[in-house]
Amino acid sequence: MAVPASGRSPSVPPALYGPVAGDLPLVEAKLASLAAEGAPWLREMLVPVLAGAGKRMRPAVALLAGRFGRYEPERLVPLAASVELLHTATLVHDDVIDASPERRGRPTAAALFQNGPSVMLGDYMFAHAADFVAETGNIRAIRAFAKTLRVMATGELEQDLSAFEYSEDVQRYFDRIAGKTASLFATAAEGGAIVAGADEPAIGAMRRYGQRLGMAFQIVDDVLDFTGDAEAMGKPVASDLRSGTLTLPAILYLQREPEDNPVRRAFDGVRPRANFERAIAAIREGGMLAESMEVARRFASEALDAIERAPRHAADPETRETLAGLVSEVLDRES
Amino acid sequence: MAVPASGRSPSVPPALYGPVAGDLPLVEAKLASLAAEGAPWLREMLVPVLAGAGKRMRPAVALLAGRFGRYEPERLVPLAASVELLHTATLVHDDVIDASPERRGRPTAAALFQNGPSVMLGDYMFAHAADFVAETGNIRAIRAFAKTLRVMATGELEQDLSAFEYSEDVQRYFDRIAGKTASLFATAAEGGAIVAGADEPAIGAMRRYGQRLGMAFQIVDDVLDFTGDAEAMGKPVASDLRSGTLTLPAILYLQREPEDNPVRRAFDGVRPRANFERAIAAIREGGMLAESMEVARRFASEALDAIERAPRHAADPETRETLAGLVSEVLDRES
Questions:
Q1: Cα separation of B318 and A46, whole Å?
Q2: Subunit contact B154:A93, Cβ cutoff 8 A
Q3: Is A10 part of a structural domain of the chain?
Q4: In this complex, do B152 and A127 lie within 8 Å of one another by their Cβ atoms?
Q5: Which residues of A are less than 8 Å from B42 in CB distance?
Q6: What is the CATH number of the domain that holds B281?
Q7: Cα A206 to the center of its chain, rounded Å
Q8: Left (φ > 0), alpha (ψ -120 to 50) or beta: where does A39 sit?
């Protein structure tokens, strides 16, 4: 896949982001400023990393939540850029931690540039994320951010350490993805509302919306890991399972077949290749993916509920519809 | 060397930190809270890393600078802990980047826990540093922090040191150590004054003091790399030179002997072992260490000058004397 040029927006249908679609290029420009000011070697690393990060859903959520108060791009754009940068920096370090060769069909920074420069690149991005959020001038937003960074860092540590444990139940899976993914969605939404000076009920509603959207997002991601086309995903099917991480479909499968389960056998090192294939087939055919999607839909419906419960006066119908549309997008996405 | 227990202060003569010596245990307790709240394995990683970091000079500088305004431990202690944590997190990531097996005679986190967990540990510490500085509730201090993190991550030049008439190579070395070391000392001092609500001349004086102290500190560090006892330092003599990094003594030596120099030969791969030994002996015997110390003393004298120029009314004589004493400590230290 070709690497897009710096600063070019990823191809996103403008309708998806409704009233904030016109401001996402400002977020893109803010992100591109990082590459412009850095040293040449840094620029070389940053451009593909920033361009390859996806649909910019997190910054869109931050901007949309800003419409529950005074929508001021000069404060909301730095916040939105900060959210995206934090997300991307986390991916860069994750790829070092997991020694991942590819992400979304492209070589990772860790693979292209080795560990040392990738750690430095991630730190540079974290530093800019901190600087961007400080630009909002809002202590409460800054504190929410710092807390999220902490939760994300700990979530990752727990994830790594809990690899290959059998006893993991669904609740612990929720805790893990809450830290790893939903916390940043929650802070994007809450932060947008805070920076815009929205009232407390709106801030609370946006936090809940972001948190539930993030939970649904990660569960769908974990389902796609089982259904996806290996080539389109840029990684082997069930890569998490193969590397020892249990996600919801596999957890449900272990609960259904607690005794003689190929996942257990593979984790115990008994013919892992064949047993992983058997497990993947059983998960695909046994209804665990549909069951997982049902859980995702439950979180999605709580996200919709949060929009409903937000004070009616706080945002225009178009903003509410766009937020609801993102929930459908998360459930229906194919990669 | 034995690893001290969590939360115990490193052995520092109380006189060194004068009026703030009594508050440094609060900084220590704040740092120890990180380990207390984490999971057991996190604690296992954090305790030796936090205990092994040295004399807590940076937090002491932050607290002392706070005496140029309203000295309130509840705001200054989080700032001081943040500075120390940022410093320590940087060391953890540096050891991953450089694949260093030891630091100060102890195995590094990177060596003890592998790269992945060390990257996560550093991120966790950065996250807490961000949280601590946000606790000050002071946007200006937060922004100074974020900027420092950026400068440290890239080594970007922030200070104009070209007032001195040094060669381009020496200037580039100054730029590098300004980013790597002096920027954090500067922000510790500036941040303390900002958080305490000191007046602008005092804030400026403290920033300059910290910057110059940091420059002297790093130059002395680079001299000690050549003079030190390999065992006491916990690394081979001239480890920077051996890994291809030119510090001030080697730069001065290359300027003196630009043509046929064993450093060049070693870097070109010509009998590196023997040529490094020859270079080290020549640097030790050729006066380059004394010349480097002379440069350190110039920075140190500018640090003293900054204290002198700070508004007289702003801080008590004991604070000024303690700040001046730290300058002597930096010049006279042996490891």
A1: 48
A2: no
A3: no
A4: yes
A5: 154, 157
A6: 1.10.600.10
A7: 17
A8: beta
C-alpha A22/C-alpha A6 separation (Å) is: 19
Closest CA–CA distance from residue B173 to any residue of chain A (Å): 17
Report chain A residues whose CB lies below 8 A from the CB of B39.
Answer: 154, 157-158, 161
Distance CA A72, CA B64 (A): 39
B170 domain residue, yes or no: yes
- Does a structural domain hold residue A44? yes
- What is the chain B residue with the closest CA to A121? B153
Pairing, β A106-107 against β B106-107: unpaired
| Residue A204 CB coordination number (10 Å) | 16
The torsion region of residue B110 among left (phi > 0), alpha (psi -120 to 50) and beta comes to alpha
Chain-chain contact of A157 with B124 (C-beta, under 8 angstroms)? yes
User: HEC string of B143-210?
Assistant: HHHHHHHHHHHHCCCCCCCCCCCCCHHHHHHHHHHHHHHHHHHHHHHHHHHHHCCCCHHHHHHHHHHH
Give the gap in angstroms from C-alpha B235 to the nearest C-alpha of chain A: 20
Q: Report the relative pairing of strands A106-107 and A102-103 from DSSP bridges.
A: antiparallel
A230 touches B at CB < 8 Å: no
A chain contacts of residue B38, beta-carbon cutoff 8 Å: 154
Q: Which residues pair with A102 in a beta bridge?
A: A107
Instruction: Tell me the one-letter amino acid at A281.
Output: A
The number of distinct structural domains making up chain B is: 1
Q: Is A161 within 8 Å of chain B by CB?
A: yes
Tens-digit pLDDT profile for chain A (335 aa)? 333 334 444 455 668 999 999 999 999 999 988 887 767 777 888 888 887 657 899 999 999 999 999 999 999 999 999 999 999 999 888 888 877 777 767 777 777 777 778 888 898 899 899 999 999 999 999 999 998 988 887 764 454 444 444 345 788 899 889 998 999 999 999 999 999 999 999 999 999 999 999 999 999 999 999 987 766 666 678 888 888 889 999 999 999 888 888 988 888 888 988 999 999 999 999 999 999 999 999 999 999 999 999 988 888 999 999 999 999 999 998 76
Q: Which amino acid is present at A9?
A: S
Amino acid identity at B37:
E
Rg of chain B's alpha carbons, rounded to an integer? Answer: 20
- Nearest residue in chain A measured CA to CA from B42: A157
Residues A328 and A217: their CA atoms lie apart, in Å, by: 10
3-state helix vs strand vs coil in chain A, percent to 5: 75, 0, 25
Residue A62 within any structural domain of the chain: yes
Question: Where do we find the tokens 């700040």?
Answer: B323
Cα(first)–Cα(last) distance of chain B, in Å?
15
Structure token digits, residue B289:
């260490």
Residues of the domain holding A288: 18-332
Cβ–Cβ contact A128 with B under 8 A: yes
B40 contacts chain A (CB < 8 A): no
